[in-house]
């Protein structure tokens, strides 16, 4: 006998099935579709967090002048902070079974939701291109080990493309693997994350064991002398911790700020609120902390073993003599990059693009749009300076998305008390229509909350003092400024309009 909730979901679907704002991929999930347990959610975060950017995350902090303890503390604290809006925004996904762009319709309107959704999608497309290039680079290096290909020696760079044909071929091969999983659907992502999580954890600890054994013990690796050598190379021996703490804390929060918005894309498949909350607490801060520590320890070990700090794990692998070790490590990097890319950089833009025209664009079509943009953006050209592009442009842009989170939280909790008319989210004429489908007050609040951070963002991105230094100070706290400012402004302008 069908349960009452499933009957209700069917009735909702029957009401809106004919709407051009509806398709089966954006529809509320039924109880039968909610298979993700606490461990599945935790595994999702293991799969997303274990990637090269996480491994290298602490590098920027230590190079900036922090000790390894301060760097690790900053990363863990940032992830505990971003976990708050993560869990709050996840609630609606689990309660109503709706994805991120549909939840946005409650605050921005059935059409206006596309403004915020596409802002999120732009960041995801940037990350998708970069992660696909990283995965392709791992395959390229793997072929070099297997067949003796010497990068830059045995192949020739095509001038108009900017890379060699073998490099492009490896990029497209990894791209095709991503596409195959996209076409297999959301359930394949759950299996990918769940099966790969234990493997990735074992590989990480295996790398840590090698570092401890080869460098003479953990105490030697993490000694003040070793860290001092890294700081000396970066010229940051006498930097005040508090001077660099808040800018870097903001950057670390920004690392997953985008996921704190579209987390309903995953929690709509969770069995219960308990599963999504505990799964996220178990998966996010612990994995980010552990893998950042592994990155710190292994890199410090390279100072002792090779006489220089090697933060890039692909560059580190070039130092190994054993082909089997290199092959296993490169396969691990490819799997880690794949799990991050699919979950963090495909699911959200696929739904976001689908939200543009649900009657024409399904989840799979939205995913293909993301994948094609990933090719057209030619990410190998964008990542000439990988650190600058990731830590200034993408994380900086993510921090500017804080106002969207503020508006969502204020609308769902402060104004609606977590109550939504789900069927109206899929109607052209309903509670969330506002003016021709757009809540202009939400759009204006979004602009006003972003504006204070834009000058500082431009200064940081261009590395020029185009705007006064005052704006740099504001940008230091970008996410912490944008989110609460948007929440307060939205509540003030909407408190008389929203009726429960």
Question: What do these coordinates show?
Answer:
- This protein has 500 residues and is mainly alpha-helical.
- It has one domain (4-391): Hydantoin permease (Orthogonal Bundle).
- It is 73% helix and 0% strand.
- It is built from 25 helices and no strands.
- α4 packs across α21, α8 (186-215) packs parallel to α14 (273-306) and α21 packs across α22 (440-450).
- The chain starts with a helix and ends in a 6-residue tail after the last helix.
- The mean pLDDT is 87.
Layout of helices and strands:
Blueprint: H1 4-16, H2 38-49, H3 52-64, H4 68-96, H5 100-108, H6 113-147, H7 165-184, H8 186-215, H9 218-221, H10 224-234, H11 241-255, H12 257-262, H13 264-267, H14 273-306, H15 313-317, H16 323-345, H17 347-356, H18 363-376, H19 379-382, H20 386-399, H21 402-415, H22 440-450, H23 454-462, H24 469-476, H25 478-494
Q: Key features?
A:
Hydantoin permease; 500 residues; mainly alpha; 25 helices; globular
Q: Rounded to an integer, what's the Rg over CA atoms?
A: 23 Å
Output the structural class.
Answer: mainly alpha
Tell me the fraction of residues in β-strands, as a range.
under 5%
Which superfamily, in CATH terms, is the homologous superfamily? Hydantoin permease
**CATH architecture classification name:** Orthogonal Bundle
Q: How many beta-strand elements?
A: 0
Discrete helix count: 25
**For the report, how would you describe the main beta sheet?**
none
Backbone shape: globular
Which CATH class applies here? Mainly Alpha
